[in-house]
């Protein structure tokens, strides 16, 4: 081994190379077995596994062992207005979208309440299934009051950004209220997201406001709980 590189770093590379073809969630040999396989000490194995876990390559369960990680998509919508395609591309992943619905419909009661419009008002509904590296990662439904921009219904959003289109019509999101919770996946969501019925999914909701404080878009995004994670940055408020 190259003495200029720490032993645990060299071991990390050997473990990755040895088990690179294993499927996600597959167990790898125990610490003792890795010691015998690579001829190193147990502390070196533990340090290498700790680093691999921090890198998201493996995960460890107490009393069960170490497993190949299922590479998760990291969503940054909790802290910014970054678009899906831009976010995924920055992670060196390939994003694609499929339009499932692009219709004018009456606003459901809860949506009308969020958007502060009368019940049964007409809204534009854009529903898309989003993929990362050809794997379904998000089922997203966007509701916008139709009177805000009637041209929405005449536009093909299969390869066009909704926000960029709205910006061309001088409509942009200024701030948003967002929430995240875990739900059981019903039939429709489980089918599109390719997960088991009633398995955990993350429900991400966002209510966007224009600069004058008017709500203009309500979004519901559903993610497979084990395939996505959410990342945000927080700061200590300035002391008064």
UniProtKB/TrEMBL annotation:
Signal peptide: none annotated. Keywords: DNA-binding, Transcription, Transcription regulation. GO terms for molecular function: DNA binding; DNA-binding transcription factor activity. It comes from the Bacteria. GO terms for biological process: negative regulation of DNA-templated transcription. Transmembrane segments: none annotated. It holds the Pfam family UTRA. The keyword Transcription regulation applies. InterPro entries: Bact_HTH_transcr_reg (IPR050679), Chorismate_lyase_/UTRA_dom_sf (IPR028978), Tscrpt_reg_HTH_GntR (IPR000524), UTRA (IPR011663), WH-like_DNA-bd_sf (IPR036388), WH_DNA-bd_sf (IPR036390). Residues 1-71 form the HTH gntR-type domain. SMART domains: HTH_GNTR, UTRA. The keyword Magnesium does not apply. This is GntR family transcriptional regulator. It comes from Bacillus salipaludis. The lineage of its organism: Bacteria, Bacillati, Bacillota, Bacilli, Bacillales.
